[in-house]
Design goal:
The chain has 464 residues and is of the alpha+beta class. The radius of gyration is 24 Å and the shape is globular.
Length: 464
């Protein structure tokens, strides 16, 4: 469950239903329009920007009022308290494939063992100076100071590390997300969430990952394994930065006998710190967190066919500040257009001969830019069966049987692969949570950033 939507999985059907939330039932009409706009936005604007290979097919689904009531009552007891100020009132939603399922990503593939799927919210990978109130911190890191003042916790993750193109910084960013996932990282094992929002270092998650990355050596009595968490870090770093092309093979560099240095990197450091803590460990962590940490804007070029490269390109399409776009929106409204009419022109992409074309182009680019800053990436991994286990001696078998077996051995042919420690992992990437952000919320965004800056300034004063 997020702030705007509630997601229900129907495991028997291998689908999920994404239901929009609101604070009261009077917003039903607006939510209906929002769903229709989402379909148009995906087809007319997102597909040209991201390409089909990263997008997920979806359709509108209606349920009965009775089903909606049963659903609301059935899940009320397991919903997070912080989300209860909104509920589901519209009996319609988006239906799409369940991206935690191996069947969705690798239909018909010859797999060995379970499937790991990771949902990752990368956030903004660039600093647009006119949009960042702090001169040396990205907005995500600035917000963490606000969260620390309000909730006594802060993530060490910086999106600029993830988008840097420097493999050591990319791995550092992923490890930081694992230390403090909050709502920016979720790891699923065979469709089941393996941890909570505080850390991925739970026994359930560690056991699944360690078992999943066990490597059997045919010439040894005992099998040895890479540390599950460090193995997943390497797989994710490779999948995110490598060209995502059919029938491609990439290498992930990881030492299966994870070194002490690597283990230290993956050990939780400053992900969850209480202001009231008195232990020497907590004191040292607090001291580390209180030191000023600037965000590095040093980049190595990302592969254009990689998922991070594509997202960064879309994030970079806008060069105007929130204040600039607020002014453009106000100008159009002063010229007689309502926000609904502006959205309609953009979503239908039918303003090419309009006298407002230049301003509408700016708003469209800003929409894409903000969507790309708040999307989620789903990456699934599954071990491919070793070829010697999939192939067999066909000598003497009927021709038709040999042909069928040959087809079976080629059925994984178009999938992308990563080789790590002698094992081959199939991987699949999709992008979700691509809602257009309402233009009317620009002022709210400006106000939030100001709150974050005030929290940072207050914390800096207290530390000094």
């Amino acid at each position: 469950e997020g702030n705007a939507n509630l997601v229900i999985a129907i495991k028997e059907e291998n689908v999920i239903i994404r239901l929009p939330k609101s604070e009261n039932s009077s917003d039903i009409e607006n939510l209906e329009v929002k769903l229709q706009n989402m379909m148009l936005y995906t087809d007319r604007i997102l597909k040209p920007a991201f390409g089909d290979k990263f997008l997920v097919p979806h359709s509108l689904l209606s349920i009965s009022s009775h089903q909606l009531q049963c659903l609301r009552e059935g899940i009320r007891g397991v919903r997070p308290a912080k989300r209860l100020h909104k509920d589901v009132y519209l009996p319609r939603g988006l239906m799409m494939p369940d991206l935690t399922s191996a069947i969705t990503h690798f239909p018909g593939a010859d797999l060995s063992g379970g499937c790991i799927s990771v949902e990752l919210k990368p956030k903004a990978g660039i600093i647009l100076p006119s949009n960042c109130p702090h001169p040396e911190l990205c907005n995500f890191c600035l917000k963490q100071h606000y969260k620390y003042s309000a909730e006594h916790e802060r993530s060490p993750y910086c999106p600029l590390d993830l988008f840097s193109g420097d493999m050591s910084r990319v791995k550092k960013a992923i490890a930081a997300l694992m230390h403090s996932p909050q709502n920016n990282l979720r790891i699923f094992g065979d469709g089941k969430l393996l941890h909570d929002e505080s850390t991925t270092r739970t026994q359930h998650c560690d056991n699944f990952l360690n078992l999943w990355t066990t490597i059997h050596q045919p010439d040894c009595k005992d099998s040895w394994r890479t540390d599950g968490q460090s193995g997943l870090v390497s797989l994710l770093a490779t999948a995110l930065t490598a060209p995502y092309l059919p029938n491609s093979l990439h290498n992930a560099d990881v030492d299966s006998r994870t070194s002490n240095v690597e283990k230290k990197k993956l050990r939780p450091s400053c992900s969850r710190i209480s202001k009231n803590s008195t232990s020497s460990c907590d004191k040292s962590l607090t001291e580390i967190e209180s030191k000023k940490r600037n965000c590095s804007e040093k980049y190595e070029k990302l592969e254009s066919d990689s998922v991070l490269g594509r997202i960064l390109d879309v994030q970079s399409i806008n060069s105007h500040s929130d204040h600039d776009i607020k002014g453009v929106l106000q100008d159009l409204m002063n010229e007689g257009l309502s926000e609904a009419e502006i959205n309609n022109l953009i979503f239908h992409h039918c303003y090419q001969t309009s006298p407002h074309k230049e301003k509408l182009d700016r708003l469209r680019d800003y929409m894409l830019h903000t969507t790309a800053q708040d999307l989620s990436i789903f990456i699934a991994f599954a071990k491919e069966k070793a070829r010697e286990n999939r192939s067999a001696d066909t000598t003497g078998l009927p021709t038709k049987t040999r042909e069928n077996m040959s087809d079976r051995n080629c059925e994984n042919g178009d999938l992308s692969r990563i080789e790590m420690n002698g094992e081959v992992y199939l991987f699949s990437i999709k992008i979700v949570d691509l809602d257009p952000k309402p233009l009317s919320s620009i002022q709210k965004k400006i106000d939030k950033k100001q709150k974050w800056l005030e929290a940072y300034n207050n914390q800096t004063k207290n530390d000094s």
